[in-house]
Amino acid sequence: MIAMLIEGLSKSFPGPNGAATVAVESLTLKVQKGEIFALVGPDGAGKTTTIRMMTGVLRPDRGSVSILGLDLHKNREEVKRLIGYLSQRFSLYGDLSVDENIDFFAEIHGVKDFRGRKERLLEFTRLGPFRARLAGRLSGGMKQKLALACTLVHSPQLIVLDEPTTGVDPVSRRDFWGILQSLLADGMTIVMSTPYLDEAERCTRVALMSGGRLMDVDTPESLRKHVRGTVYEIVCNPVRSAVKALQASSEIDEVQAFGDRMTAIVRDSGPDAARLKRVLTQGGVVVESIRTVPPSLENVFLSLLAHPRRHEERP
């Protein structure tokens, strides 16, 4: 069953000198019930604008959104009862306790007799020992857990999360994902945006976005099939010289730099690791390690940016 259907969604904003800036262009997506679906891309990709349009916060210039078979704009009140929305700046009240924040959001949603529900949410998010603490005195990760508890208090069938782990420490990020996986196991449908490609690897399906446009959408496993040939991970110094040396070779399809490391994507008949090392050494590069690795979504994303038409040829 389709939980969310987006068709031809577009949005522009006034830019400098009166020219319109396109934030999202002709976006079409289907989210199946019971999956965790991620919008992935860098800042400016259009993720937050898309999230705000799919929750009714922002009206699109063109296109439509339906939630569980209901048109978002024709059935706003009914849809509001079906979804939960956790924005980038969720409005917790710092001078209210954990308990009081949950009570407040339950009242906003018109939830009656929610004490049992609140206790389950506190246990689920492991906030029970901190229920009397003011929200303003919680850590960043605990604030996100409380925000999620407030989002879930009215028992939505689908939740939409806008970059929920941005700025959260690694341990809290891991705990948050454990909560999401538990919700998924209970049949919840989750739509989220994230700039982290390692988080996208955990999702059922992923939509890769750039410049307001959809580059591709599929399972992480299928998306990795974009990358053809062998991927070598190289740790070396200086990386800039290494990139220049390898880009000069016609046998190497792509070179991608990631901080202090890089990857070289080599066609099946291309050079092996020993030959790559010789090329780099001759270019004055010190190679610390070189090894074959499976393609990552990071490789896929950069490949699509460099070769936007390749996804049309993918098996």
Examine the secondary-structure arrangement and name the CATH architecture of the largest domain.
3-Layer(aba) Sandwich
SSE order, one letter for each helix or strand: EEEHEEHEHHHEHEHEEHEHEEHEHH
The general outline is: globular
Number of helices: 12
Low-confidence stretches: none
Q: Would you tell me which CATH topology of the largest domain applies?
A: Rossmann fold
Largest β sheet strand count, sense and barrel closure:
6 strands, mixed
Helix content: 25-40%
The average pLDDT value, as a whole number, equals 90
Number of strands: 14
What would you say about this model in short?
The protein is built from 12 helices and 14 strands. By secondary structure, it is α/β, with parallel strands linked by helices.
SSE order and pairing:
Blueprint: E1 2-14, E2 20-32, E3 36-40, H1 47-54, E4 62-67, E5 70-71, H2 76-82, E6 83-86, H3 98-108, H4 115-124, H5 140-152, E7 158-162, H6 170-185, E8 189-194, H7 197-200, E9 205-210, E10 213-218, H8 220-223, E11 230-237, H9 239-247, E12 252-258, E13 261-266, H10 273-282, E14 286-293, H11 297-306, H12 310-313
Parallel strand pairs: 3-8, 3-9, 6-7, 7-8
Antiparallel strand pairs: 1-2, 1-4, 4-5, 9-10, 11-13, 11-14, 12-13
Helix pairs in contact: 3-5, 5-6
Walk me through this protein's architecture:
The protein is of the alpha/beta class. The chain has 2 domains: 222 residues, 3-Layer(aba) Sandwich (Rossmann fold), CATH 3.40.50.300; 67 residues, Alpha-Beta Plaits. 34% of the residues lie in helices and 30% in strands. It is built from 12 helices and 14 strands. The strands form 3 sheets. It has a 6-stranded mixed sheet, sandwiched between helices. Strands 2-1-4-5 form a 4-stranded antiparallel sheet. The protein has a 4-stranded antiparallel sheet with strand order 12-13-11-14, with helices on both faces. α3 packs parallel to α5 and α5 packs parallel to α6. It is globular, with a radius of gyration of 23 Å. It starts with a strand and ends with a helix. The model has no long low-confidence stretch (mean pLDDT 90).
